[in-house]
Amino acid sequence: MISKDINLAAQHLNDNGIIGFPTETVYGLAGNAFNTEAIHNIFEVKKRPTFNPLIVHIKGIEDLKQVATEIPPIAYELANAFWPGPLTLILKKQHYIPDLVTANQDTVAVRVPNHPVALELLNAIDFPLVAPSANPFTSISPTSAEHVENYFGNQINMVLEGGECSAGIESTIIGFENNRVVVYRLGALALEEIEKVSGSVTLLNKKDKKPIAPGMLMKHYAPKTDFILTRNVHEELDWYTGKKIGLLLFNSYLPDFDSNSQIVLSGESDLKMAASKLYSAMHQLDKMNLDLIIAERLPEYGLGVSINDRLERASKKINTQLTS
Description:
Layout: E1 2-3, H1 6-14, E2 19-21, E3 28-32, H2 36-46, E4 55-57, H3 64-67, E5 68-69, H4 73-82, E6 87-93, H5 99-102, E7 107-111, H6 116-124, E8 129-130, H7 145-152, E9 158-160, E10 172-177, E11 180-185, H8 191-198, E12 202-203, E13 227-230, H9 233-237, E14 245-249, E15 262-264, H10 271-286, E16 292-296, H11 303-314, E17 317-318, H12 320-323
Parallel strand pairs: 1-9, 2-9, 4-7, 6-10, 11-12, 13-16, 13-17, 14-15, 14-16
Antiparallel strand pairs: 2-3, 3-8, 4-8, 5-6, 6-7, 10-11
Helix pairs in contact: 1-6, 10-11
């Protein structure tokens, strides 16, 4: 059930239910961060392995000490610069945060979402929310209430309507190791923006065993349709004659190819726009009963780096000859 009723959403959460709720990045599958029953149900519904930690959402920086401790000064600098917003911080957790949230690690991932409905909901309850993306494990992340409803239906209590997600890809996740700022997941906040505040960062964003943060697994964000990433779509098409193919392109349509089977992310080459449309385009192509989706690699700067990260994790094959 999709609804705009924040009081109803708060009631379900107070009763240890789980709901879909909007953020500026993607829709999350939310439950009480202090209630192990709700947290367990999130893992069950998503079919998410419990070794993969969750993100805790708080209503403001003033609540950070409610979930984290030993917070370094640089964490406050980044939080003051980017919260509310698509930045998640990995910090030492408070002892009462359930181990199920943190995959038995002593750190917790935390952020303040930049969405009016999310913030209204967080202010209507007296606990933070755990909220991984509201999709089955490894599937395409949802950027609309309809995506969540299509995935889960009556398996969850409701989906809180918040419109289309403006950022369109998950938050950037940052931690701190030996006085270094470490990026564990590329996301909707570009590295260049972070480095204006923190100085240079270290990228450590792939780990299939005991990931420190969500989004580090090699296979993720994937459609059901076979999906290939390449820099040269023309050359890739030559390998698949006779196949029903859809194209996911950056800034221009491919001439002499069925216009109904290709989606351009931004005709203006706007990387923010491309990010905001990425998952909705993938959902759309995945419904076309195609044999194959071929995605075009984006420029390797700004949010293009984050988008390419998502495309790589979704890909059955990356044409390394064409992407090197």
